[in-house]
Amino acid sequence: MQKLVNINIVSNPEFLREGSAIYDTFSADRIVIGSDCEKAASIIEEINKPFGETIFITDLLSAEMIKYSSNAFLATKISFINEMANLCEKVGANIEEVAHGMGLDFRIGTQFLKAGIGFGGSCFPKDTRGLIQQATEAGQSLEILEAVIKVNKQQKYLLMNKAKQRFGKLKDKKIAILGLAFKPNTNDVRESIAIDIASELTMQGALVTAYDPLALEEAKQILGEKIQYALSIEEAITNTDMVFIATDWDEFKDFPLEKYEMLMNHPIIFDGKNSYSLDEISEYNIEYYSVGRPFHNKSNFYYLK
Questions:
Q1: Strand runs labelled E in the chain
Q2: 118 with 78: CB under 8 angstroms?
Q3: Band of the pLDDT at 30, cuts 50, 70, 90?
Q4: d(CA 137, CA 151)
Q5: Which of 1-15, 120-134, 182-196, 266-280 has the lowest mean pLDDT?
Q6: Which of 263, 238, 126, 103 has the alpha carbon at shortest distance from 182?
Q7: 62-154: CATH number
Q8: How far apart are CA 248 and CA 275, in angstroms?
Q9: What is the pTM of this model?
């Protein structure tokens, strides 16, 4: 006679970020537990109590939806601020000032309102697509989320579009890409926008050299010999026609701007992470294109009284 086994399922979705997982473990906003068994949920709750963080117990499907919805909402904030950045460039506003002013409203907050070239990585793209797939199977459309994905796909080509507007064609242009990981403090290149940029530039005939503090070997597994790989920023940018900054590494922010003047054929930077302040960059003979921050002379500013 076959023995029946009762299995109690517990779901404990994690919200850890790559590059700060240890910090997030001990400083989480909340711990979510989903379960179909009260006793099993209580055991997981006791395990997590020593962390001293808010614990929320719910059913299995709701726990899964909390994970997907959280990442989808953060992805939405990113695509929204990038659309606003593109509008700011058209009308002459500064997206950093706009984002700061928005973030002063406690209902909005400042997190994930940093304009750039879009989101990548293993979570946001996967979870947004997964949520849309789940909705499709349930006969429900998620029009806002579909727009988020569309905006993100368009945004990753922003720097290339700016470069083509500046140069016309990119064939035979020597281009340095700073950053290959999808975010700083990790070697993860999954869904990396920098990888997509490098691949597209080579298809357009550009001569690409890339540097990343951690992700060179991982990038080689994807890009192979399509591009050259440098072991330092200096090596990457020497004798190049332009630089693309694609990952928000502190090493790039701290890099002396005068070295661009010294090492490049003509210092032109397309900055997808707004690494430098406009006041700082204006002190150098560098042609600089960022996201949502058109240059202004001080005489162009006016203030509402």
A1: 10-11, 31-35, 55-58, 174-178, 207-211, 228-229, 242-245, 268-271, 287-289
A2: yes
A3: confident
A4: 23
A5: 1-15
A6: 126
A7: 1.10.1040.10
A8: 7
A9: 0.86
Place of tokens 């090596």: 235
Rounded to whole angstroms, the Cα distance separating 184 from 72 reads 21
Angle at 72 between CA 66 and CA 73, to 5 degrees: 90
CB under 8 Å to 52, separation ≥6 — which residues?
Answer: none
**Which residues are catalytically annotated?**
123
| Tens digits of residue pLDDT in 76-118 | 999 999 999 999 999 999 999 999 999 999 999 999 999 999 9
66 token code pair:
């909390």
What mean pLDDT is predicted for residues 188-206? 96
The residue ranges of every structural domain in the chain are 10-58, 62-154, 157-289
Nearest-angstrom CA–CA distance, 263 and 267: 8
pLDDT digits over 113-151, tens only?
999 999 999 889 999 999 999 999 999 999 999 999 999
CATH superfamily of 157-289: NAD(P)-binding Rossmann-like Domain (3.40.50.720)
Helix intervals (H) in 49-191: 60-91, 95-103, 124-137, 143-155, 158-167
187: how many CB neighbours lie within 10 A of its CB? 17
Q: What is the pLDDT of residue 87?
A: 97
